[in-house]
Amino acid sequence: MEFTETKLAGAFILDVERQEDPRGFFARVFCVHELEAKGLNARVVQCSISFSRRKGTIRGMHWQEPPMAEVKVIRCTRGALLDVIVDLRPGSPTRLQHISVELSENNGRMLYIPEGFAHGFQTLADETEALYQMTQFFAPECARGARWNDPGFGIHWPLPEPILNERDRSWPDFH
Fold it and tell me: Where are the domains of the chain?
């Protein structure tokens, strides 16, 4: 895997190194040794899939508070999405800054999201599926969220009139 550090310390774009031949390709998408060599948390205790039927669907912005704060690795396995993370870490020089990365079945990219970040995405294609790997189990009592269009985050979502569930629509602003 190729690791590209983002402007948000500890967050990485992970690109697979494809070994191609006439049949197609083979690529490693997870390796404990490679993650640990970069100083990243390679523990995986839970994997989940998110499927969105329609282009424009937003899921987020979500995180878990300590003691169940989690690292996530996100990969789009079908369709395409714009993945967005916001640094919520107290004292971080990039606190409340965000990045967005297009993840798609075609580019095979993944996003490594450290503890202390809010995460969300907007689908760019119908029938989009994302695979999540997490370092902690889901704990409803530690689950938090902020409004997808919180002006304090300044996120530009590419598609107007997003599709949201009531929970994501009703989160308060972060502050």
Answer: 2-18+26-170
Reported as a pLDDT band with limits 50, 70 and 90, residue 49 is: very high
Catalytic residue among 33, 132, 156, 175: 132
What three-state secondary structure class fits 32? helix
CATH architecture of residue range(s) 2-18+26-170: Sandwich (2.60)
pLDDT at residue 175 greater than cutoff 90: no
Tokens 């989160």 correspond to what residue? 171
> What is the three-class DSSP state of 52?
strand
pTM listed for this prediction? 0.96
In whole angstroms, give the CA distance from residue 59 to residue 57: 7
φ and ψ at 140, to 5 degrees? -55, -35
For residue 112, indicate whether it is catalytic. Answer: no
Q: Using CB atoms within 10 Å of the CB of residue 42, give its burial: 0 to 12 exposed, 13 to 18 middle, 19+ buried.
A: middle
Q: Distance (Å, rounded) from C-alpha 111 to C-alpha 130?
A: 11
Marked catalytic residue, from 33, 62, 119, 156: 62
Catalytic residue at 33?
no
